[in-house]
Design brief:
Layout: H1 3-10, E1 17-18, H2 25-37, E2 48-54, H3 55-71, H4 79-89, E3 93-100, H5 101-110, H6 118-139, E4 143-144, H7 154-161, E5 167-178
Antiparallel strand pairs: 1-5, 2-3, 3-5, 4-5
Helix pairs in contact: 1-6, 2-6, 3-4
Length: 199
Amino acid sequence: MSEFLEAVRKRQSIRVLGKPIAIDDRELVRLLGELIMNLPTANNMQSTRMVLLLGEEHNKLWDIVLETLKKQPGSNIGERTEKKLAGFKAGHGSILFFDDEAVTREYMQKYPLYTDQFPLWALQQNGMLQFAVWTALADKEIGASLQHYNPLINEAVKQAWNLPEPWELYSQMPFGQRAETPGEKKFEPLEKRLFLFGQ
């Protein structure tokens, strides 16, 4: 099996995390830079943005999530949710994935024939980046999971890190040392998911 496929197989949701990871932060920044620079984008739109949070900035994110959830009408944050958020906070850091909607809107105007498609393509390229980052982390024996506390936390996140208003938060990826063993993956039969025509 190729190294790429082996890395894809390693990629699983790890929700209980620890601080130390197998690479230093400078190497991590280089890795993320390589991934976002080489990401496929529609018409070379390049509207995807990432924010890497480490140390106290990472802790701040999960404090924001907890406080935001507590403020929701009818909210009843239980021990299970608090434990899950603590598992994320115990990690080494978090990566936030955004789309710069100012760029996406510019391309919608630039290519009017496809104006309705650019938001969809922005979402697709963001998903490709998330998968690439998650797989690259797994390849380095770093645990991670993909979380979606947006849009509840969007405005608080922009304010906390003074991020541009047009940036739309798509997902959050806490990462760190693997502090749990994930359960065995269950798969639908391949014949329900992969179809061949021809030959």
